[in-house]
């Protein structure tokens, strides 16, 4: 029996002053922890204080993926780094709201709204 490949998520950090944008693509599952941490570490060294998590390229998020996102939010909070979220579909927006994640990472409509929220 062949092993099925785990769906992967890509997390790419892109500087867009005053934001550092982490663009997510694929499925945010248990495999998301390492890519998220790596992208976040690049954010820490960028000198950009505000972080935008962009879920526009995400097809699926499960509870282990949400746990990985919570880990990133915890690290950001420890460093007093504001985090915003964009690109969630209606279903995942509702889940983020129900779980209270939007208290720590407010939802914004798009990158332009994130720039305004970050004071640009």
What does this structure look like?
The protein has 4 helices and 4 strands. The chain is α/β, with parallel strands linked by helices. The protein has one domain: STAS domain (Transcription Regulator spoIIAA), CATH 3.30.750.24. Helix 1 links the parallel strand 2 and strand 3.
Concise synopsis of the structure shown:
By secondary structure, this protein is of the alpha/beta class. It has helices at residues 33-44, 63-78, 90-98, 111-117, and strands at residues 9-16, 19-28, 50-61, 83-86.
Can you tag this structure with a few keywords?
120 residues, alpha/beta, four-stranded mixed beta sheet, Transcription Regulator spoIIAA
Would you spell out the secondary-structure blueprint of this structure?
Elements: E1 9-16, E2 19-28, H1 33-44, E3 50-61, H2 63-78, E4 83-86, H3 90-98, H4 111-117
Parallel strand pairs: 2-3, 3-4
Antiparallel strand pairs: 1-2
Helix pairs in contact: 1-2
Spans with pLDDT under 50 lasting ≥5 residues?
Answer: none
The first-to-last residue Cα distance is: 54 Å
- Secondary structure: helix percent: 25-40%
The number of helical elements comes to: 4
* Rg result: 14 Å
What is the ordering of alpha helices and beta strands? EEHEHEHH
Round the mean pLDDT to the nearest integer and report it: 92
Annotation, overall tally of beta strands? 4
C-alpha geometry: globular
The structural class is alpha/beta
Strand line-up in the sheet with most strands: 1-2-3-4
- Topology-level CATH name: Transcription Regulator spoIIAA
CATH architecture: 2-Layer Sandwich
């Amino acid at each position: 029996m062949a092993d099925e490949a785990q769906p992967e998520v890509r997390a790419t950090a892109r500087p867009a002053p005053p934001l550092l944008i982490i663009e997510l693509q694929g499925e945010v599952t248990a495999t998301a922890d390492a890519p998220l941490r790596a992208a976040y570490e690049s954010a820490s060294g960028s000198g950009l204080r505000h972080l935008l998590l962009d879920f526009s390229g995400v097809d699926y998020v499960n509870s282990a993926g949400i746990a990985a996102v919570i880990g990133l939010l915890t690290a950001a909070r420890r460093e007093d780094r504001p985090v915003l979220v964009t690109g969630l579909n209606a279903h995942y927006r509702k889940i983020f709201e129900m779980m209270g994640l939007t208290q720590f990472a407010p939802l914004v409509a798009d990158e332009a709204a994130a720039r305004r929220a970050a004071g640009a």
